[in-house]
Amino acid sequence: MTARQPLALVTGANRGLGLEVCRQLRDRGYRVILTARQAERGRAAAEELGVEFLPLDVRDPASVDRLVAELRRVHPDGLDVVVANAGVALNGFDANVAETTVDTNYFGVLRVVEGVLPLLRAGVHLVLVSSGVGQRDLLSAELRARLDLGSLTRTELSALMRQFVADVKAGRHREAGWPGTAYGTSKIGVTALAHLLTRDLADDPRRIDIVAVCPGWVRTDMGGPNGERDVETGAASILSGLDVPRDAPHRFYRDGAPANW
After folding, report:
1. What is the CATH number of domain 7-91+102-132+184-258?
2. Strands (DSSP E) along 85-153, which ranges?
3. pLDDT tens digits for 6-47?
4. 105's torsion region: left (phi>0), alpha (psi -120 to 50) or beta?
5. CA–CA separation, 90 and 183 (whole Å)
6. What is this structure's pTM?
């Protein structure tokens, strides 16, 4: 009997880090599903790599639902790896930037993870692409206290992310203890989410492994030309999340080593 080829799903993967993650997973022997919001570009990228393509806009709940339905139909055996890579880093800082960034980088990850949870196989790896830019010490002492990973719920974490956007819109984010970075705040949320999911799913018999990873500052369209790392190194740091010990309490890594946040 031929061994089943493990299946990996990568979001935001028509270029940059996502595309390179797909390439490296393919070279590791995975069957890869590349997803992207722009179908024409995503399909072209998938054809170039020789992998599958499915459309996905992480900001659109209906798009996530369609992806899940298609995965059920085409891949009923389920997923072995999910890399939640889709994200934005926008110029400037205002209410629109805050809302778009948090909705994409935090809620986009949450939508995808909660959508695919029923499709995950035993021993699955969920890798959430975060960033060392998202440091908790950017927050006021009061907000850090509210970010208590021992008692915080996912609902409360999402409420905090919405509160950041609301405070930016009201022009009171500094007064409320938030930093002036939407990207950094959204990634604080992503790293916290990895810890909360690990706690919440600890008793799942499938032994779901969730880790947040930092690729570093990479030279991509999003990272810009001055990044410290090439895309191959950044993608390797993301995929080092597959090798993190499952029983390690720390859930944020860079290059396979625990990273501060």
Report:
1. 3.40.50.720
2. 120-129
3. 999 999 999 999 999 999 999 999 999 999 999 999 999 999
4. alpha
5. 8
6. 0.95
Both structure tokens of 217: 């500052």
Active site residue 253: no
Helix or strand holding residue 33 (H, E):
strand 31-36
- Site of tokens 């393509």: 53
pLDDT of 112-152, one tens digit each? 999 999 999 999 999 999 999 999 999 999 999 999 999 99
Q: Determine the Cα–Cα distance for residues 253 and 62; give it in Å rounded to an integer.
A: 31
Using CA atoms, how far residue 217 sits from 14, 102, 181, in Å, is 19, 19, 16
Task: Decide if 227 contacts 217 (C-beta within 8 A).
Answer: yes
- Give the C-alpha separation, 89 to 104, whole Å: 10
Q: How far apart are CA 98 and CA 91, in angstroms?
A: 11
pLDDT in tens, 151-195: 999 999 999 999 999 999 999 999 999 999 999 999 999 999 999
Instruction: Please identify which residue in the block is written with the tokens 């393919």.
Output: 26
Q: Which residues contact 168 (CB under 8 A, 6 or more apart)?
A: 93, 94, 95, 98, 99, 178, 182
Nearest C-alpha neighbor of 259 from the set 248, 157, 156, 145: 248
Tokens of 191: 């790293």
| Residue 21: HSE in the Cβ half-sphere, 13 Å Cα cutoff | 33
Q: Give the separation between CA 210 and CA 199, rounded to whole angstroms.
A: 10
Single out the catalytic residue among 30, 106, 183, 253.
Answer: 183
**How big is the CA angle at 59 (ends 121 and 148), to the nearest 5 degrees?**
70
Side-chain half-sphere of 233: how many Cα atoms within 13 Å?
Answer: 10
